[in-house]
Design brief:
The structure holds two protein chains of two kinds. Chain A has a single domain, classed as P-loop containing nucleotide triphosphate hydrolases (Rossmann fold, 3-Layer(aba) Sandwich), CATH 3.40.50.300. Chain A is built from ten helices and ten strands. Chain A is globular. Chain B is an alpha/beta fold. The longest helix of chain B has 19 residues. Chain B contains twelve helices and ten strands. In chain B, a hairpin with a 4-residue loop joins strand 1 and strand 2. In chain B, 44% of the residues lie in helices and 22% in strands. Classes of the chains: A alpha/beta, B alpha/beta. Chains A and B meet through helix 7, helix 8 and helix 10 of A and helix 8, helix 9, helix 10 and helix 11 of B.
């Protein structure tokens, strides 16, 4: 589904801009190459500042890469203009980290889910809203509610509903459970796993939490300082991590087990 | 009094009427770490705020006692209470960026408390701040003293807040989700540092977290809260082996672990939620009559 080759992205470093002259650039992604096969659930993991969110945004072309190429389902989207991209955006969607700030507080849930459908000029919008709410397990009456009337877990379901209402082929989920309690986290993860299976979605799941990645993903990409330090099938990566950084990440996770050696 | 900090039947209400904490009792002995576990809205941070006297204005302590070092804080006049808390207790806050003043250098932010509240001389305070930065393993402490918060990493900032919490040798530290904003690798370092400092200074530590993994590494005893009510109080190894309350067991079952991918990730079942809700309601009825 995705073919990413030597992807580079740098941004101007405004903190070190000289008074006169060119702004120095920070290299955030330093040449990444990987594939996301159709139907795969890819976990992208890394510490803060490793570039995992930047990578996600580049894959959806919310950021323009400075080098390399990104192919989505056979089409090179690296240098497409916003106009050319608009039609394709229906096929790759995103779920955001913080549902409170990514849902318009002044619109009802129905309107929020409808917004991208209207942009894409699709028809049958009311039925699509109902279907999307059914799929994420929210009552249809929720279309009349405002985001502030919902709990954190319910808001995140609305974010998921908005993404799947477009019937995309690919979804990027960027730290979507990190703001939730364990209980709603479990619900959202189970829901996402079920949707991926039922709708045949391809999913990239960005997270700093390896326990969550292990639960959901079948492939994992470990990022560190803008580079891929390890990539592989989830089972082998957890059973026999190769890169020292992966081992460090794994050993740092506090398990809910007082007998774990952790020092 | 069997703890350095002893909270007895603490009830906190919203001025409008809603109840935030219901009859909370707990003990933290010197040199001990007591964990407060709960989902968001359970009131775990409010316990810390009640102890430090920093409850939001809309909240009132309606009954119960908070004993700190053998004195019931509620019986003291406000000024004396503030002084006592200031001298004996300190806070390690959640977000190190908002807790530090962005427009002041690090040094004065650590020494201020010593100079303003405890009346230290400026030079002594500066010397102590340097010692503390060394103690929390900050390399090149003199440079860090002159830095602004934005020049430092998240882990570094949290180290500074730990240093300043321990600055005045408090006997009680309240740590409110001190590692939630940090990476796992940094979290590990910071938790080790907190444990190390706590053991060295023999402080009582009240540790607020929603992460059972973190809890199992740091605490000796814990209370599980639901809707402001303690549903289970437990000793550490026992809690993880055999949680007594079904809600505690459900929380454990909902926590993902990377070592056991086969176990199903179960959200807290509705029956368990109904049961704790019922217990909370029964408690409210009992106290109302």
């Amino acid at each position: 589904m995705y073919k990413v080759r030597d992807l580079k992205l740098s941004l101007p470093d405004m903190a070190h801009k000289p008074l006169i002259g060119a702004t120095p650039r920070i290299e955030i992604l330093k040449g990444l190459s990987f594939d996301v096969p159709k139907g795969a659930v890819l976990g992208i993991v890394g510490g803060s500042g490793s570039g995992k969110s930047t990578l996600g945004r580049a894959m959806l072309r919310l950021l323009a890469p400075t080098g390399g190429s990104i192919c989505f389902d056979g089409t090179d989207i690296t240098h497409l203009s916003e106009d050319q991209l608009r039609g394709m955006r229906q096929r790759f969607q995103m779920i955001f980290q913080d549902p409170m700030s990514s849902l318009n507080p002044r619109r009802r849930v129905g309107g929020i889910i409808a917004a991208p459908l209207q942009v894409q000029r699709l028809d049958g919008i009311p039925t699509r809203i109902d279907e999307a709410l059914d799929m994420v397990g929210l009552p249809r009456e929720f279309a009349q509610r405002y985001p502030h009337e919902l709990s954190g877990g319910q808001r995140q379901r609305v974010g998921i509903a908005r993404a799947i209402a477009l019937r995309p082929d690919f979804i990027l989920a960027d730290e979507i459970v990190s703001g939730l309690d364990v209980s709603s986290q479990a619900q959202v993860l189970n829901l996402l796993g079920k949707l991926v299976r039922d709708l045949g979605l391809t999913l990239a799941f960005i997270s700093h939490d390896l326990s969550v990645i292990r639960r959901l993903c079948d492939r994992v990409l470990v990022l560190h300082l803008g580079e891929i330090v390890e990539e592989g099938a989830t089972v082998s990566l957890f059973e026999a991590p190769q890169a020292p950084y992966t081992r460090e990440l794994l050993s740092a996770i506090p398990l809910p087990d007082p007998h774990q050696t952790w020092d | 009094m069997n703890g350095y900090l002893s909270i007895r039947n603490l009830t906190v209400r919203l001025k409008g009427g809603g109840t935030i904490l219901r009859d909370v009792s707990l003990n933290v002995a010197a040199g001990q770490v007591h964990g407060l576990m709960g989902e968001s809205g359970a009131g775990k941070s409010m316990i810390g705020k009640a102890v430090l006297g920093t409850l939001p204005r809309a909240l009132d302590i309606t009954s119960g006692q908070i004993w700190l070092d053998g004195v019931d804080l509620q019986t003291l006049p406000p000024a004396e209470r503030r002084n006592r808390i200031g001298a004996l207790a300190a806070l390690i806050p959640q977000d190190p960026l908002t807790a530090l003043n962005p427009s002041r250098r690090i040094g004065p932010q650590i020494t201020r408390r010593l100079v303003d509240i405890l009346g230290w001389k400026r030079q002594d305070a500066a010397k102590r701040a340097l010692e503390l930065l060394n103690e929390v393993h900050i390399p090149d402490a003199p440079r860090v003293m002159r830095s602004y918060p934005h020049e430092l990493s998240g882990g570094m900032r949290q180290r500074i807040l730990i240093a300043s919490a321990f600055a005045a040798e408090p006997k009680l530290i309240i740590a409110d989700e001190p590692t939630t904003a940090l990476d796992v690798t940094v979290q590990k370092q910071i938790l080790h540092l907190i444990s190390e400092m706590q053991a060295r200074h023999d402080t009582a530590l009240l540790f607020v977290t929603h992460d059972l993994g973190v809890m199992s590494k740091v605490c000796d005893t814990l209370s599980v809260l639901y809707a402001g009510k303690v549903v289970e109080e437990a000793n550490m190894p026992r809690f993880f082996m055999r949680p007594i309350h079904p809600y505690s067991a459900a929380l454990l079952a909902a926590t993902p672990t990377y070592t056991d991918p086969t176990s199903s990730l179960t959200p807290v079942p509705q029956t368990v939620v109904d049961q704790v809700e019922r217990e909370v309601m029964e408690h409210d009825l009992r106290t109302a009559s």
